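Most newcomers find our protein records easier to grasp once they have seen one. Sequence and backbone structure share a record, each on its own labelled line. Nothing more is needed to start thinking about how sequence determines fold. As an example, a complete record with its sequence and its structure tokens follows.
=====
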Amino acid sequence: MVDAAAIVEERKLHLRVELAPEYYSVGVSARFEIRWYQNEDFNFHYQEVHQDGVWKCRWDRHPNTHNSRGHFHPSPTASRIDAEDAQWPNDHRDVCQIVVEYVRKRIEALWD
């Protein structure tokens, strides 16, 4: 599922994961940008780039003024205005499983 991964040090330090292009139709690229903190706060940003625009969503756990500490920014824009309160597991592996399952279903929907 992963084509490449790299630590990006510009702006906020994060892990960028480029997803394998064979999972997507021609002309679509997808990636994750992931930040995880020692206090268990995190940000998982998923983004697809299509010829006609960008589709994205985001899973977050961090203090903020717009929602509870745990929240989800739904597709297609991942806007702050549309953010929904959410509860995320404490174990990072469980959070990763939620995110990967969401993306798996998204990929299936793209091929339908």
Strands lie at 2-8, 14-19, 29-36, 42-50, 53-61, 70-73, 84-85. The two ends are 19 Å apart (CA to CA).
